[in-house]
Design brief:
The chain is an alpha+beta fold. 20% of the residues lie in helices and 24% in strands. Helix 1 (53-69) packs parallel to helix 2 (91-101).
Length: 137
C-alpha cells in the first residue's frame, strides 16, 4: 500500500526555534505527534541560553512545550521522551527541571530514555525529543 502524504502534517511555531535544516519542528501522523529534538536556543534571539544544565533544560522544555501546544498537545499527553546529555553527570540537575514539567495530579510520567552523547548542536548540554498522543475533539 503506497504512503499517503495526507497522513503526515508538519507542525511549526515561531515560539520555538525554527528548523535550520531539512526537518520539521514536529510531525503529526494520525493521533500521534513526533517532535524533533529541541536544544536550548532562545527563539527570540536565535542564541543558546546562558547558564548551565538547569537553565538549558528549562529553555529546552519551554521550546518543546511551544511545539506541543502548536498541535493542541500538553506535557500530559507525552508518552515517550528521549533525553540526550553531553555529560551524564548533569542527569540529577536535568531530572529536577524535567520532573517539574511531567508532574501533577493525574499526570502519568512518560516513558524515557536518557543517553550521554559525544556532542550536541551548538555545543548545548541537553536535547530532548518526544512522542505524544494528540487528544481527540
Amino acid at each position: 500500500m503506497p504512503f499517503n502524504s495526507d497522513q503526515k502534517h508538519a507542525v511549526s511555531t515561531s515560539d520555538a526555534p525554527a528548523a535550520i535544516g531539512p526537518y520539521s519542528q514536529a510531525i503529526r501522523s494520525g493521533d500521534t505527534l513526533y517532535t524533533s529534538g529541541q536544544i536550548p536556543i532562545d527563539p527570540a534571539t536565535g542564541n543558546l541560553v546562558a547558564g548551565g544544565i538547569t537553565e538549558q533544560t528549562t529553555r529546552v522544555l519551554r521550546n518543546l512545550k511551544a511545539v506541543l501546544n502548536a498541535s493542541g498537545v500538553e506535557f500530559a499527553h507525552v508518552v515517550k521522551t528521549t533525553v540526550f546529555l553531553k555529560d551524564m553527570a548533569d542527569f540529577a540537575a536535568m531530572n529536577v527541571v524535567y520532573g517539574t514539567h511531567f508532574a501533577g495530579e493525574g499526570v502519568v510520567a512518560p516513558a524515557r530514555s536518557t543517553v550521554q552523547v559525544a556532542a550536541l548542536p551548538k555545543d548545548s548540554l541537553v536535547e530532548i525529543e518526544c512522542i505524544a498522543v494528540v487528544p481527540r475533539g
